[in-house]
Amino acid sequence: MNQKNTNTIFWEDERVDGADKVTGKAKYTAEHNLPNLAYAVFVTSNIAKGTIKNIDTSKALAMTGVLDVIYYANCPAVPGYNPNAAERPKNVSEWRGHKVLYDNKVRFFGQPIALVVADSFENANAAIRFVKPEYETEAFETNFDKARLNVANLKPPVTYKRGPETVTNVAATVEAEYNIPIEVHNPMELQATIAYWEAEDKLLLYDKTQGPKSTQGLMAKTFGLPDKNVRVIAENVGGAFGSSLRSWSNVPAACIAAKKLNRPVKLVLTRPQMFTLIGYRPQSWQKVNIAANAAGDFLSINHEAISNTSRYEDFREGIVDVSKFLYAAESVNTKYSILPLDLSTPIWMRGPGEATGCFALESAIDELSYKLKMDPIALRIKNFTTINPENKLPFSDNNLKACYEYGMTKIGWKNRPTVPGTLKENGLLIGYGMAVGVFGAGKGTASVRAILSSDGKLVLECAVSDMGPGTSTSMSKIAAEAMQMPITKIKFKLGDSDLPPGPSQGGSGTTSTVGSAVDLACKTLQQKLKDLAIQFAPPFSGATPDTLEVKNEIVSLKTDATKKIEIVALLKLANQDKIDLTINSSGKTPEQLKFTSNSFSAHFVKLAVNPKDGKIKVLQVVTTGDAGKIISPKTAHSQMLGGVVGGLGMALSEKLEIDHTTGQIMNASFGAYHVPLHSQIPNIDAWFVNKPDMNVNDIGAKGIGEIALIGFAGAIANAVYNATGKRVRDLPITPEKLGFKSVKA
Ligand code: MOS
């Protein structure tokens, strides 16, 4: 590992776990091995809906290495599967979601219906095609566009209303509908579980999860165990984007198989199964109506949305929420319904809800700007608000204007044509576009243990996970700053439910929540060191703690730096081999609750559209974030780059295709589901306001993960319109939708 900066406290240019990750030393769930491990592969349904009459397992069972084929007829009882609450044992909660291997019902195409367990992955995988189900099929519906038209298919809407029914002085109105298809997370790491019953009532899980504590609690309740009898290890997570925010069927299935066979079982989903069994961004339809006066003030915003869920579970997200508070508008109406279809259940996917909602809202504002003949940024500034108009609280901070200023300069906004389709460079139509993203900036509860040992090393522990953003790095940096000691002497341990409880990694909350706890733990540690110095070190006898400082691993008198003692020497003098403390950091304080907190982003795009074939080439991206203080510039920068890549996919290529005659996913592979290629990623300038927001927490930092993506697809759509004069409201934006027949990618 590069050690060049070991003398500095702020180690700007490394990830603390970077070397382990690139050299393969860092282990991911499926890479773990246990003695006597067995391997399991799901058999999945070939129909979308119906009943399984029988499953012939005899051929599969006769194959080399096959140990068992588990399905509804031979599956051991799972306490949490019992639908009758009255009959469930105490401390058991019903398993949410699809009860895998439980009954003979098929609820979606590709549903697991049996689990082949063998002595190797290859033998299990070879046997799955010899498991022969017999079905009785039923009529099903997977077609969102068709089913949403019948109101009877929708669950009752959730509505919001403020301001007057009718508005006056309307100078311009836009009303338009927007469609976003199902998109899939596509993390690099496959969903995987290793289950091992260490005793009849003691379960060890290696599991790909964004929340070791949440998985622990859920599996304890599903199998009727006390939480402490379930240990979940997820030390490294290879991307998730929300797909590992809940436990999917692979977790109970591995536990069931391990129990039945009385040996550890590893279950890894195949890549095609990653498209069907771990959730997705739901398909959505939206209608936005904005009315403005001649000066550009928004008089009213109406935002309506429908998104799909499964037939067996309700999944909702905040699609219309952003319209309630991002801009000043007196009259706001929103309406949101979900539509059950015969598909698996969706889940949060990066920028959940807001990414969908901002595409529609930010496209509509762009449309309105042309009607008003106003610059779209000027229109946004006209409707800027420092008070959240929904809850009437002041924003803890909102630096969108600084984002606009930086983005406009860097992208060359002055070159943007005010009349669309009029600017050409090298024979290509050039367009500029921008859009805004916003996401809540919370602060939840977390416990952190800090162990400062007599060799001067500091270990911090929390059961949070790191799905990739670099949590260990940012937490180590927060500790280094709070302790004023070198980051190289600090180790942050995570990814194990046995560590002090921390949140699931999601909703852009980790840095604020866990970081606040790390900060508090280190400040408490500093107090302890000062107390020890006063008690044991002669130069400080009679001093008060506030006259001392702890810096560079030394305790010294603020007014006389020659009066000092090294931390290591102090612990020796005090005869302590370590200081070991655990602190609990709670949510927002009453003072912090006087504000409403969000992170913001503004994305700027310059792109070219070929007038011959409609091919879009993104030439330049400037992406700006207002997320308070930036703790770790390198990992924060990478978050923004990842958001742009995800946003490019959302805008230009990603779409899960369903064959509505069978209910089958037609493009469940990287060959057919198109994520952006490296060659399609333009030069990206990622910039942060980097102004501490001290109203949200003591470290001044807010989340980045979601705002990196939210709004980006709108910036592309707005730039495409600016280039061509064609407004595309259905993602992804393909040449066909610009009026071109078809082109090769
Ligand atoms: Mo994220 S969708 O909060 O993992």
Name the descriptors.
745 residues; alpha+beta; binds dioxothiomolybdenum(VI) ion; Aldehyde Oxidoreductase, domain 3; Aldehyde Oxidoreductase, domain 4; disordered N terminus; five-stranded mixed β-sheet
Class from helix and strand fractions:
alpha+beta
CATH superfamily of the largest domain: Aldehyde oxidase/xanthine dehydrogenase, molybdopterin binding domain
Bound small molecules, by name, code or SMILES, are: dioxothiomolybdenum(VI) ion
Instruction: Give the tally of β-strands.
Output: 29
User: Widest sheet: strand order?
Assistant: 3-5-1-12-9-10-11
Low-confidence stretches: 1-11
**Average pLDDT figure:** 96
Describe it for me?
It is a single chain. The protein is of the alpha+beta class and 745 residues long. The chain has 3 domains: 33-138 and 186-274, Alpha-Beta Complex (Aldehyde Oxidoreductase, domain 3), CATH 3.90.1170.50; 284-442 and 593-738, Aldehyde Oxidoreductase, domain 4 (2-Layer Sandwich); 443-587, 2-Layer Sandwich (Aldehyde Oxidoreductase, domain 4). It is 22% helix and 26% strand. The chain has 15 helices and 29 strands. The strands form 7 sheets. Strands 3-5-1-12-9-10-11 form a 7-stranded mixed beta sheet. Helix 12 packs across helix 13 and helix 14 (633-652) packs across helix 15. The two termini are 40 Å apart. Bound molecules: dioxothiomolybdenum(VI) ion. Residues 210, 241-242, 245, 348-350, 352, 506-507 line the site of dioxothiomolybdenum(VI) ion (MOS). Dioxothiomolybdenum(VI) ion is lined by residues 210, 241-242, 245, 348-350, 352, 506-507.
